[in-house]
Specification:
- The chain has 419 residues and is mainly alpha-helical.
- Among the domains are: 86 residues, no CATH class; 148 residues, no CATH class; 37 residues, no CATH class.
- Helix content is 55%, strand content 6%.
- It has 12 helices and 5 strands.
- The strands form 2 sheets. It has a 3-stranded antiparallel β-sheet with strand order 1-2-3, with no helix packed on it. Strands 4-5 form a two-stranded antiparallel ribbon.
- The two termini are 108 Å apart.
Length: 419
């Protein structure tokens, strides 16, 4: 039991307390009273130091000594005692009494253990609040990802539909469920998802084997032009050279020979006068002189007429030999062959135009001879290379179309096996 305080230093208003002061010793029951600021609260804090066995935080350097009834002593430097002391003051209330605010009557927690439990509860509530926020955020992320997945399957279903457009599978319904089912099936496989990816070439190959569009029609070679008979063209070239080199043995009127345009005009007019049995000139109205008619007949002889007829007929034949360009029908060709087909038809048309240019050149030579039949145009250089080049490129085009037909047959057989 406490007997009396013997020393106090550095403890608030009780500083420099000494035993010389007249202070009664403690008894079983003690009543301490005094003016405000006289040290009642400070004394309570000093006694509570015995309970906590540590100096008050405001008087950490305080030094005090208390004598016990058994002649023992308690000093602030060691706090070596077994006293059962409980001090109920404002410090105790601050540390050990907490109110849990609520709309109903407050719940009071008394004792340090309960307050600690309350603090731990508040801490757990904060953690719970954070977890709820995380959960809400995760839920939003999940919803966003689920929406992305839904869009992915919806778009993929459309891609599948577009890919198989024109095939035997075009009438099947393709939607996001189709994509989702395929994806689930792939996840059950032992291989990685990447191993199922197809290159562009592989994709085209797979599509070609599902086409009919595999029902692509057979392209008949009979729809292509025939190869040019080089030997026959050589003969044609010789005939052209022969015609343009022909000389007419006639009583030539130099004015008409040297001016082909006038010569043609007079030739046509002579023919018209004969057909209408005109005795007067249809141009000037003067009578036609017999001597002039005989001179014209000599100029435009039978030999002249036959040459002009031959030249005209041969031009008509050559014009029939000019071939139109081939139409690119790559939409009828399997995709795997389209590039080769496009190149082949491009080269075939290029050499076809060169061959046409050659024929057009012969027609021009004959036309020039008609314009001036008395002119010897002379021998031309022989060249049938353009026709040979056309035949070569045409054969390449035929080979591509033949490959298309072979692929078509394979696909049809494969589809029959599936059925």
């Amino acid at each position: 039991m406490l007997h009396k305080i013997t020393k106090i230093k550095g403890f608030g208003v009780l500083d420099n307390f000494s035993p010389e002061l007249t202070v009664k010793p403690f008894n079983i029951f003690n009543l301490i009273y005094g003016w405000n600021g006289s040290g009642k609260t400070t004394l309570g804090r000093l006694l509570r130091c015995l309970e906590t066995k540590s100096n008050h935080e405001e008087y950490k350097d305080a030094d005090f000594s208390i004598e016990l009834s058994d002649k023992g002593k308690v000093e602030s430097k060691s706090y070596s005692h077994n006293l059962d002391i409980k001090i109920f003051n404002q410090d105790f209330i601050t540390e050990n009494l907490n109110l849990f605010d609520a709309q109903t009557k407050p719940i009071i927690f008394i004792s340090k253990e309960k307050v600690d439990e309350k603090k731990e509860l508040d801490k757990q509530k904060e953690k719970l609040s954070e977890k709820l926020k995380e959960s809400l955020s995760t839920s939003k992320e999940y919803d966003a990802l689920e929406k992305e997945v839904d869009e992915f399957h919806k778009n993929t279903g459309k891609v599948i539909k577009d890919f198989l457009l024109g095939t035997v599978y075009a009438n099947v319904t393709y939607n996001k469920k189709t994509s989702a089912d395929i994806w689930k099936n792939l996840l059950t496989k032992q291989k990685s998802i990447e191993s199922f990816e197809l290159s562009e070439t592989e994709l085209i190959k797979e599509k070609n084997y599902t086409l009919p569009n595999s029902k692509k029609e057979e392209i008949l070679l009979t729809g292509l032009p025939q190869n040019i008979d080089i030997n026959r063209l050589s003969e044609v070239e010789k005939e052209v050279h022969k015609l343009i080199s022909t000389n007419i043995s006639a009583k030539v009127i130099e004015r008409l020979r040297d001016n082909p345009d006038i010569g043609k005009w007079v030739s046509d007019g002579l023919a018209l006068h004969k057909s209408h049995k005109s005795v007067d000139c249809e141009f000037c109205g003067e009578p036609l002189k017999k001597e002039r008619l005989l001179a014209l007949e000599g100029h435009y002889s039978k030999e002249y007429g036959e040459l002009m007829s031959d030249l005209t007929q041969y031009i008509a034949k050559l014009e029939k030999g000019i071939r139109p360009e081939l139409v690119n029908e790559s939409h009828l060709i399997y995709e795997s062959l389209c590039l080769t087909y496009n190149n082949a038809i491009k080269d075939t048309n290029r050499t076809l135009l060169l061959a046409n240019d050659k024929i057009t050149g012969w027609i021009k030579l004959l036309s020039d001879k008609i314009a001036n039949p008395f002119l010897n145009i002379g021998q031309q250089v022989s060249d049938t290379g353009a026709f040979a080049d056309f035949n070569t490129e045409l054969e390449k085009l035929k080979a591509v179309i033949l490959e298309h037909s072979i692929l078509r047959t394979k696909i049809l057989l494969k589809n029959l096996e599936k059925d």
